[in-house]
Amino acid sequence: MKIKIANSDPAQFETEALVVLVIDGGDKDNNKPEFQAKADAFSKAAADLVASKEITGRLLETTTLHKPDGLKAKRLLVVGCGKAKNFTSYELRKVAGAAVRALKKNAKSIAIVAPENWGGNANSASQSTLAFERGGLKEAVKAIAEGAVVANTDYNYYHSDRKQQEIDEFTILVPANADVKALEHAANAGQIIGESQNFARDLVNEPGNKMTPTILGQRARKMAADVGLQCEVYSEDKLHELKMGAFWSVSQGSPEPPALIILKYEPAGAPQQPVLGLVGKGITFDTGGISIKPADGMEKMKYDMAGGAAMLGAMRAIALLKPNVRVISVVCAAENMPSGTAQKPGDVQIAMSGKSIEIINTDAEGRLVLADGLHYAKQLGATHLIDAATLTGACVVALGGINAGVFANDEDYFNRFAGALKKSGEKMWRLPVDEEYKELIKSPIADIKNTGGRYGGAITAAMFLKEFVGETPWIHLDIAGVAWQEESCPFIAKGPSGIAVRSLVELVKSFG
Ligand code: BES
Ligand code: MN
Ligand code: ZN
Fold it and tell me: What mean pLDDT do residues 310-332 have?
């Protein structure tokens, strides 16, 4: 998708479809929906639909008018933004995405009028999670670009009758007096981030037979060469050399060799510290191993590498956006299979850090690969760690499919990450890692065990990881419930969501 900025009069702009946003006026005295574009032409063209209450401004309501009166555009698409007080960048991304998805079957080139007066009053933000970003034309343009790029993709690659139905040209119309250069920069940043999110989604979409650890390594290597990142991909021998006993134990049941993927972004002028360490769970298929999962729904476990994919997507964006900070990424890829060579419940494994682990359940494999990945990232010089993993079903039970779980051992680092969430528009909810929970992962035979029983499963998994980060500031994202969209939404196709890419990028940008 090509994204352009133009400061033309929307009413005079020739396009296959013009998108205009409308705010729900339900909380205003006159109760009138409010068009986010100056020209009277829009309210005139849509007057009847407003009068009949077919256009109310309700969030994500879309209404199409053909040959709109007084406009040069072939169609007018009116998209609702909800009430002004709740309209943040979180909604704006969805609105832009809904416009793209509503039009992509019938148009190749569309234009959207950027809202000028959005974001309402921060004090009245809905109390749901964090208050997301509000106001500012640059912020609006960036959010629109991100939402549009993400919405433009559908995951039907394996349908033999797949049709190419994408928007090729997307123009963001801004006021005549706007700083077009600055807005082009903002749109470009949004596009890079959206495309990197799509890069991650593409990886996650692939089934287990088309996305083995080796293939993930090849895809990482190609991406790194394209954007100019250092990349090394190792396999079994290196795991033995580094004594990554926890990581290797997961891979030992599969004939597919593991992949240890290392990416480095080291800009010339950046200070020696901080060094951010991005660590991802890359289980390309999780059968559960000897503690095998039930057949029902097991096919979904092809997305168990979504944390690793998020790290690769974030590294891609970072290489292109060039923040002035060092970043390394470690992705631990393996296939978790049952076989005669697989590890067994009761086995004791020695992690790279030297800690011994009793394996209670071979299906708690994500924490094993991350234990060595986190330790290795520290050894490579990371001063701040963040990991993402489809780690626990317990996190899905706790937070459902809306919020990812976030865990942190350092308040300053967490606050910085909360700032990144505000910009990224990704919903995450903090869960605790109090020392008291450590009791639950004590083992009679080893230093720790790899499961903590029925209660607080997302937390005990995080406690396990915490054993391997020591004093280093660390954030853990449990994305099990949000990495895969079960249903199609107006603004994103069903399938891989690409969660965490945008927040990781904003976190890194906050350092550089
Ligand atoms: N990959 C799964 C977690 C998962 C569940 C991801 C649902 C996506 C959706 C993970 O490896 C796993 O199997 N976790 C176990 C841990 C348990 C054995 C302690 C779980 O959550 O059941
Ligand atoms: Mn598992
Ligand atoms: Zn898993």
Answer: 99
